[in-house]
User: Fold these one by one.
Assistant:
Number 1:
Amino acid sequence: MTTCVALLLSATALLIYELRAYRDAWVADLATQAHLLAGASVPALFFDDARAAGQDLALLRHRPQITAAAVYTANGELFAHYAPEGATANLPAHPAEDGYRIAGDEIELVQEVRRDGERIGSVYLRARYEVMGRLVDYLAILAAVMVASLVVATLVFNRLQHTVTRPILAVAAAAREVMEKRDYGLRVPKTTDDEIGALVDAFNNMLLEVGRRTEALERSNHELQIEMEQRQRAQAALILADRRKDEFLATLAHELRNPLAPLTNSLEILKIADADPATRERTRGIMERQVRQMVRLIDDLLEVSRITTGKLVLKRERIDLPIVLRTAIEIAEPVLRERRHEFVARMPDGPVWVDADATRLAQVFANLLSNAAKYTDAGGRIELEMDVQAQCVAVHVRDNGIGIDPRMHGAIFELFMQVDRSLERGRAGLGVGLTLARQLVEMHDGRIEVHSPGLGHGSQFTVELPLCHDPAASRRTPERPASGLTPSVPLDLLIADDNVDFATSLGEVLEALGHRVMLAHDGVAAMAAARARPPAVAFLDIGMPGLNGYEVARRLRAEPATRAALLVAVTGWGQNSDRERAREAGFDHHLVKPADLAQVLPLVESVARRALQDAPVTDRPPG
Ligand code: ADP
């Protein structure tokens, strides 16, 4: 196509040029002829010799292309003329303007005749202008040249195209293969060092780069996939935890409400003044059990939160495990008895030493025992067995109760996990007991496991603890609190707490024991009461309006009359930093709410005993 277009353009240009050259040559030729004739016609015109002019014109017979010629006088009259033999001249009556004109296939030319600068006539020439024949000849030649050139161009193109197209086709094939097989290791062989070679190099480099990037992309895709799976797992865990939380909240509400109905009923009974003492005593028993149940639920929750936030510190010492187990049995005893289970405990006679926190361990085993009692139909059989080995001791708590599906063995130790809520609705619990047990056992470097052949086949929980072989480890026996139910000596006591119910109820109990109690519900009132009658013991809430407990303690310590009082902080904050702050403020003891009588009475009792020892013999009360 390119060759063809180039040839056509050059042929057209050549043709135009050639036609113009042909015309110019003809005009120049006729002009020369006319000039010669004009020169020769001067004497004939001057002497009015038409015959001589005719003879000059007759010489034109040697130019066959000239078809007519004439000489005109100065005033435009025909003077002499010529026409080839056998042809008519067909001349114009008067000569046209000087110059040439082309009309069809004839060309005419008029040339003036001058003598001494004066026009004396004109010469007229007419010739055949054979431009069409010429044009046809030219076109034929050009067509032949074009065809020949195109043939040659096609031959050359056929030879050359392979050197150009082969590497490009190879690049295209490699690109297709890369797309199909995703093999970025493919390379196109380089055959030349020209532009095609540069193209092949660029393509190969591009493949290398694309390969590298694809690899990096695949790697990051893989990482992304792993991350996504982790996120999905985390999300699933979150959803599960969220569901457990919702279920837990429902259970919690249920479990906390449960004791409220019997408590409300009991209060109504107590309001009836003429209730007989036996009814009152039974009612009191109900209230005590229900309150204990609520306290246990809340304690468990607080304990889990303390462990999960890392705030629980074990008070470990060398203790005799059978003693701990007996304490646990005592705690679980009411529920064992209530459900009329047969209970068997097998323990070695001698001591079995472990390095542990006795209270926490008792809590673990009490939990396992009360679970065994709860999840066994009334009249079942519960066993506790201790198995002492070389390095460790294993305690098994066995029941013949509802059993646990083996698929749930791992899950039951998770927080708020309860196997079958519908079944257990009647059995108090929040799904925290086993979580607490496992965490406490693990804090003791031990482990806890469950074995159950399946639903309906009973369960066995095993706690394994390392034995303590170090006889040098000190055995610090915790001080046994004094029973404290009868006062050794009546004391002045101050109870300052903005929780009016708590202050009043504690005050009433202490008054019932014979002490003189002052109540205050803010810091300023507490100071006023203490100044009016300096107390032997002051129980101070920390978060009180007016002056807070720390401030009251500081002031009591600063005043001579109250300096010696036993100061007890009673607060909801039980962290080490809170205890430290209380100690700095001058407190002797720090009780975490809800402080019960078992904690309060020994403190009062210890002061009373000291007062008794210090007092003269005659002051001692009888008995
Ligand atoms: P709670 O007893 O308050 O529901 P736990 O954490 O103590 O919570 O126990 C978790 C779950 O494990 C219980 O809800 C119960 O389904 C199951 N479970 C615990 N002990 C036993 C047992 N001895 N027999 C059968 N199932 C038990």
Number 2:
Amino acid sequence: MRRLGFAVVIGLLCCGRSLFAADVTGHWRVVRQTDDGNSLETFLDLKQQGSKLIGILLAGWGDLQISDGRVDDNKISFTVDVASNWRYAGEIAGNEMHLTQYDPNAGAIPVSAVRMPLQAVAPARLPVPPLRAVLSNGLASTPPMGWNSWNFFHDKIDDSTVRQIADAMVTTGMRDAGYRYVNIDDTWEGSRNANGRIRPNKKFPDMKALADYVHAKGLKIGIYSSPGPKTCAGYEGSYGHEEQDAHTFAEWGIDFVKYDWCSAFRIYSDSEMRAVYQKMGDALRESGRPMVYSLCQYGKNDVWKWGKLVGGNLWRTTGDIEDNAHSMFSNAEAEVDLAPWAEPGHWNDPDMLEIGNGGMSADEYRTHMTFWSILAAPLIAGNDLRNMTPETRAILTNSEVIAINQDVLGRQGHRVQKHGNIEIWTRPLAGGAVALAIFNLGLTDTSVTVGWQDLGISNVRSVRDPWARHDLPAAMAEYSGTIKSHDAEFLRLETGR
Ligand code: GLA
């Protein structure tokens, strides 16, 4: 009682405006209604110190620190430190808060929060299966090629846009260049019915009909889920429904499943990832429909050592790519020691392409494609194919560059020399050919001379520039020239007599 009296006196003396200023310390469930009919929940753990507010927001993919938090009477505001900084502001009404989330990418979004007595952010833990090797599905003998909705559209993806993308895959020549998969990423999910069957949300009225449409264009269709209860965007994941979801995907006619760790981290440790991914690997095989299995857990726990053993065809080796040269180079460089783990059917994945999304120059996008080709990386375009410049289209569809990426030997290239910002990578190709890429990761144009002999390449009988699609003098024994900042020299050397 003495303490309460003290608090009231302080309230009267120092704040003046309210006898009972709000104290939001505690756990809150935050709900956002989406246009697609979902109620997405996140959680807040808050601690109020006078008018200062600290805490964390527990999102589908991680715990995010709050900064600049303030409580003044019944007014609350704080920022969540993600790349784009979400600002929240609103009013406190007892055990409820009415907030607006200002997201630079999405604008003002109303959200409500309710105080919770106890924090239950994840369901009870389900056991994981004993480890064993899942049989390979025989797919992806060369790195998968296709398109994915996330990099450009994020949550603004729906049935009609996917159909238009499928149309554009054909009309732009992407399909004929080898791109086959049209992959729907996060935010297609709705709720489960009484039997636990996952339903798409309002944006995707009929997944089977959409799959039929995509198939009729000579293309394949992919979908996305998470081993956690929620996806990274907070939508329904496959936790506890792995077999059921694999069957549903098979019934819809799905050909490719990206499986994203996200909220699984609230239930399982990183060391259990293999068992968790094996569960879906088994479920996909047992569904009876061949589906490419794409592991997305950001390269944690040396996934390249066990990705194949869970039935994976490709596995992400890094966090998310961003549309800038620094991110593109850093994702590529993360694979510098990973060549031994790539082989037909099983590929290291430095993430989807950003080519055409506007954050890099044409030279940088060409370098992006060159790097992904020398790495034998999956080529999953991430731009709006309906509105491509001729330059973007030319970069994505260069048949000679794609031929290097898709080389049937299935060996990933590796870095053979590094001199400051100049890196020399080679990739062995079928028939004794070698792809050679010289990258300039630096900010200044740099002169480079590289002799074939110095790289251990002998008996070169022809030299071709795949970007320019022309032959260079067969007798040349070295490359000597200036490589512009963030540019690359890409050559295909045929060897033998
Ligand atoms: C993670 C993945 C991305 C994308 C988003 C969707 O960040 O790494 O590729 O799938 O989730 O929420």
